[in-house]
From TrEMBL:
The lineage of its organism: Bacteria, Pseudomonadati, Pseudomonadota, Alphaproteobacteria, Hyphomicrobiales. It holds the Pfam family PNPOx_N. InterPro entries: Pyridox_Oxase_FMN-dep (IPR024029), Pyridox_Oxase_N (IPR011576), Split_barrel_FMN-bd (IPR012349). This is Pyridoxamine 5'-phosphate oxidase family protein. Residues 32-150 form the Pyridoxamine 5'-phosphate oxidase N-terminal domain. PANTHER family: FAD-BINDING, PUTATIVE (AFU_ORTHOLOGUE AFUA_6G07600)-RELATED.
Length: 203
């Protein structure tokens, strides 16, 4: 087993990408991208910090929670969270971002890459109100490229197949996990207690 240390060696192993896989990459959001984003209740946001390490985070809300201003601009609201601000702080060091949109029941995904800035303009926040509350900030993403990812990964994973769902009780609650991981932490919130607390603080 050998370490592959350059792209030429990697290409020799895999070969060149097909013509269609290259031509599908757009420099803006067309009608199909817009429609997919409007249907999506879930996106994964990727950024890179000044230390060169990546951060990825799930973002979710009602379908269409990410606003499309035009074919080059998206608004991603930042809802209440744990205030670590990992992804947002990364934007100051490196404005490049990646977004992976998922739609339940559809095995294809949409990848959008671009640059981002953090804004708190009242008119932008007003476009992202949920449950009567605006976010504290929005990430304004300028689209550089967008393309659909084929369905193979989700087909292999059977992600949307109800038969593959695990019984939540078969896995420890986050409260139990954090009790085990954090020295001196004696709190052990049950899964039911956590869900109820989250419901009260979603927005």
């Amino acid at each position: 087993m050998a370490r592959i240390s350059d792209e030429a060696s990697l290409r020799a192993l895999y070969g060149q990408p097909g013509e269609r896989s290259l031509k599908k990459q757009l420099d803006r959001l067309d009608v199909h991208c817009r429609n997919f984003i409007a249907l999506s209740p879930f996106v994964v946001l990727s950024t890179t910090g000044g230390d060169g390490l990546p951060d990825i985070t799930p973002r979710g809300d009602a379908p269409g929670f990410i606003a499309v201003l035009d074919d080059k601009t998206l608004l991603l609201p930042d809802r209440l969270g744990n205030n670590r601000l990992d992804n947002l702080a990364n934007v100051f060091a490196n404005p490049g971002v990646g977004l992976l949109f998922l739609v339940p029941g559809i095995d294809e995904t949409l990848r959008v890459h671009g640059t981002a800035e953090i804004r708190d303009d009242a008119e932008l926040l007003a476009r992202c109100v949920a449950d009567g509350k605006p976010p504290k900030t929005v990430l304004v993403v300028t689209v550089v490229e967008a393309y659909y990812q084929c369905a193979k990964a989700l087909m292999r994973s059977h992600l949307w197949d109800p038969a593959t769902r695990i019984d939540r009780a078969s896995f420890p609650s986050l409260g139990q996990i954090l009790k085990d991981q954090i020295a001196g932490n004696t709190l052990c919130e049950t899964q039911e207690e956590m869900v109820e607390r989250y419901r009260e603080t979603l927005y």
